[in-house]
Design goal:
GO molecular function: ATP binding
Strand order of the largest sheet: 6-7-8-3-9-10-11
Radius of gyration: 21 Å
Helix content: 25-40%
Membrane topology: Peripheral membrane protein
Bound molecules: iron/sulfur cluster, magnesium ion
Organism: Streptomyces fildesensis
InterPro entries: AAA+_ATPase, ABC_Ni/Peptide_Import, ABC_transporter-like_ATP-bd, ABC_transporter-like_CS, Oligopep_ABC_C, P-loop_NTPase
Order of helices and strands: EEEHEEHEHHHHEHEHEEHHEHH
Number of helices: 12
Main location: membrane
Distance between the termini: 45 Å
């Protein structure tokens, strides 16, 4: 049983032309690091929040979200609390937004243990010290007494990671956890997350716009566009031979984590908004391969490509899939990023 399972999840708001999420299926196994990649507005943060049973007010929900087997769609308050305070934790982009500026770090870390767990002050403090050490902070005893403004953004994000681990969750959800930080600190935070994930056998879902960061950190990647998964595979598969033109476009438009910068080619056009819809492929308006009469007729299903690319997927979460009518014709070639540079 996967630790996190989205099964055909749809989230729709009235008065919008298309659903925010449309038939999203995704799994994260225990001990597996998985990334969900897409531009802003693609629906990835809504997906992350759905993993905690948080849905936009007034939305119609279809399908299933299960954490460790517990269904979150239509769940009562008790089950949601059980998931949010024990099974799963979330780390957000801006650490300062998640911590009370006038309370000490130690209080932030021990409060829930003492209030909901009934821990003694000494035991909760010992646990906080252990976690601050685990996230690599230099002087845990001093940090416990400090206020958030006394710590840098990177140190504070480490505190947030420690906070997310206090209840010993099995699933860690990270929504753009390094976007607010400088490049060096980004790499440190990702290394800490990955180490803790491996040491503790956690399931990790990394939400990011940065496909190179995803590939450097995660075993498996899902690419989301306009509320749908358009491609999934191992990090190696997607990085070396993307099948979907959008994946190829993301690879061509983000600077690599290491190595020379090369020429960056942004994907032409803008993502489809919630007030727009398309009868066919939602990427057609931006796709350099769009074929009239094919791509604008029906939406492509997410399916295994007919031709195998590099050795069959070894991921525990399932096979490589792509949603593109022409994937077998155009996909899987390393030169795809260059193709996407075609002038609009
Ligand atoms: Fe491009 Fe057509 Fe594939 Fe959509 S279905 S990504 S428009 S080639
Ligand atoms: Mg977001």
């Amino acid at each position: 049983m996967p630790l996190l399972e989205f099964n055909d999840l749809s989230v729709a708001l009235p008065a919008m032309a298309r659903p925010i999420l449309d038939g999203v299926s995704l799994t994260v196994a225990a001990g597996e690091a998985v990334a969900l990649v897409g531009e802003s507005g693609s629906g990835k943060s809504v997906t992350a929040r759905a993993a905690l049973g948080l849905f936009p007010a007034g939305a119609a929900i279809g399908g299933h979200v299960r954490v460790d087997g517990a269904e979150l769609v239509g769940a009562d308050a008790g089950r949601l609390r059980e998931v949010r305070t024990g099974k799963a934790s979330m780390i957000f982009q801006d650490p300062r937004a998640g911590i009370n500026p006038v309370r000490r770090v130690g209080d932030f870390l021990t409060e829930s243990l003492r209030l909901t767990g009934g821990w003694s002050k000494a035991r909760a403090n010992a646990r906080a010290l252990e976690l601050l050490t685990a996230v690599g902070l230099p002087d845990p005893a001093r940090h416990l007494r400090q206020y958030p403004h006394e710590l840098s953004g990177g140190m504070l994000q480490r505190v947030m990671i420690a906070g997310a681990l206090t209840a010993e969750p099995r699933l860690l959800l990270c929504d753009e956890p390094t976007t607010a930080l400088d490049v060096t600190t980004q790499a440190e935070i990702m290394a800490i997350l990955r180490r803790l994930q491996r040491e503790r056998g956690l399931g990790l879902l990394l939400i990011t716009h940065d496909i190179d960061l995803a590939a450097a950190t995660c075993d498996r990647i899902y690419v989301m566009y306009a509320g749908r998964i358009v491609e999934t595979g191992t990090a190696t598969e997607l990085l070396t031979a993307p099948r979907h033109p959008y994946t190829a476009g993301l690879l061509g438009s983000t600077p690599p984590l290491d190595g020379p910068l090369g020429r960056l080619t942004p994907i032409r056009g803008v993502p489809m908004g919630l007030l727009e819809s398309a009868p066919g492929c939602s990427f057609a308006a931006r796709c350099p391969h769009a074929r009239p009469g094919v791509c604008d007729r029906t939406a492509p299903d997410l399916a295994p490509p007919a031709t195998a690319r590099i050795p069959a997927s070894t991921a525990r979460s399932g096979p490589a899939l792509v949603a593109c009518h022409l994937a077998d014709e155009i996909g899987g070639r390393p030169a795809m990023a260059a193709v996407c540079a075609a002038p609009s």
